[in-house]
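Example record for the data management plan.
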Amino acid sequence: MKRAERLGAWCWALLLLGAALLLVSQLRQAAPLDTRITALLPEVRETPLIEQAERHLTQAFEDRLVLLVRGEDPARLVADLRDRLRDSNAVAEFDDGAIERADRALADYRYRLLAEPLASAGDEAWTQRALSRLFAPGVSADPLGDPFGLLDAWLSRLLDGPIRPVEGLPAVDDEGGHWFLVGGRLAASPYDMTLQRQLVGALDDFRTAHPDAELLRAGLVFHAASGASQAKREISTIGLGALLGILLLLWCVFRRGVTLFSLLLPVACGVLFALPLTWALFGTLNLLTLAFGASLIGVAVDYALHLQCARQLSPDRPLSRIWPGLWLGLVSSLAAYLAQLATPLPGLRQMATFAALGLLGAWLTVRLWLPHFAARPHPVTASLAERLDRLRLPSRAPLSWGLLTLLGVAAVAVIAMRLTTSNDLRQLNPSPASLIAEQQRVQALLQRPTGSRYLVVTADHEDELLERLEALEAPLAELHENGHLTGYRHLARAVPSPATQQANLARVRQAYAHALPPLIERAGLPMHLQDAAVELLDAAPLLAIDEWLKMPLGRADSMLWLGRVAVDGDLRSASLVVLGDADAVAQRQLARLTSVPHVHYHDRLAALSTHLADLRDTIALWLIAAVAGLTLLFGWRYRSRTWRVLLPPLGAVVATLALFAVLGVGLTLFHLLGLLLVLGIGLDAGIFSTEHPESPAAWLAISLSCASSLLAFGLLAFSATPALHYLGMTCLVGLAATWALVPFARADTRDNPSTPAIRDGR
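Corresponding structural encoding:
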């Protein structure tokens, strides 16, 4: 047997050496670190058409940034800002000149682009418009090419938004004055940490150089940079705080350097085993995983605690007595972590894999290596264990049991009556409130839909698609005018259908026939001007979608164009109608618009909220199923003592839910995931309370385990990432309740106090 243990120890050493070499290789190859805040988003399965629209919108939004700046000498501010961004190599190209060059790009198509009110105006109104333009100061009239100002009218409609040229620069206004717009496309992924540093550094330098200037930011890259910075801070603060707190706690108890080393060795081995394997399995490593993995310190040390406490306080007892409890503890903890693999949240699956591999590595280190570490016990350890062992219930203790029963009944009643749930998507957004408010202010000033709601319109060909988009204009415009819809964008607003363009050209021909002669006569223009102007109409080309998207002004509409997509096995043209905020009236109207098969409505936020609710319910069912399965397992092993195993974890779950119900905290998915962890850690306490109910060593190890887990997981309550904060709060309350319930699990409940006490589970 000893030979097999030595062989196992050497094999484990070789595995760790391989893991270390793999980690060195990953670090040398600069394996990618993932800073995506979207890693916590669920993988929502939609129809292929909606999934393609989602990918298209994600690509359209994620590599863009928008900056608004204002201050004295705006031309100098904008120029300096662009220079700094260009020198940082963070921006590939700027959105330059769209307003200035729009008239030249659309000039050839002006006869087919007819805006209201010209389209419905009479011939006399056309003549009066032309005369007023011809003699108005500051208006560049073209009596031959565009006597009625068709292009100006179209551009006024097309640019009917908040952006206006001020001092030759695009700007938007609010009550404080002009904000000047600087937009562009990133040179790399917004999650590229090098790009983030370059961009943030350039903006910091700009603020330093212009302390009086105001700057607003919008773009995924700023949220990604904030998330990466936040994750790094939490890795250092939470991980280091947990490590220092646990080191201090363990030193106060054991007072031996060798013992302390033996307790931390499993933690180090667990991290060394988990880190490269998780990195290799997922191809990348999210910084959220490292922040969460820092809490692994408090769990991985549990196995070593039970071994060393048993060895130092009961050196005459063989270690074989603790292996069954350690094995059951590993199985229950792995079950709690691996349950997260069933969730469709990539970030949580990676965290669960990291934690499970880390726990397995720590357990193997304790089982194969620590029996060879012989540390001389310190008198303080036995003294503390003796004092702690006095925290036990007297035999029977009807008052204590009655109070516990009363609290349990009250807790269940409060849960049944007051516990609520929450699907607030802010639990998935780790960005600080100031950055979110900044983004929302930019979107409000630019009056741009966020893309969280949209319609997908399909047709057999582009001409039909544009006609269907035009058919949506009237109901959408009515919703917008009545305040039910904050805004909308679709391609047909810029590119009329060929049928509409032909009708526009016919109306222009009519105006040239009836409104142009009076204009020439009243203005004293040469009569041959009419024939020359009419000849230009014959060469008017059709404006197509592809041509529009190539123009500077049309590039922003690229996000609306899906092109040819597969729908039910057939290739069809598809385009998006991006919508702003919609109230209940608009939601009902949008639902009615989808009654035809070629219009599809999708609300990304509603879909995510619904999916989170379904996921939360699934985890709750899994939690119930896990409890039922573990009850059967422990019932088979412990028989009538099964309640001792289940009291700490289940009582902690009930106590935590009751406290949330009293405080009005809505239960989220991440609270439930925290309860899974409480269940796993609480089961460790219940198992050892039942295996060794009279052992001071077991009680000391359980107390240290709860304290170290509180330090590790409880510190997550201070995380600025909402998901980790909720998980940490749950563990903070649940683990404290677990420790408080262990004395009841250890209690002597015999009717005859003279009967010998149960010794070490026998």
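Summary line stored alongside the record: The first strand starts at residue 33 and ends at 34.
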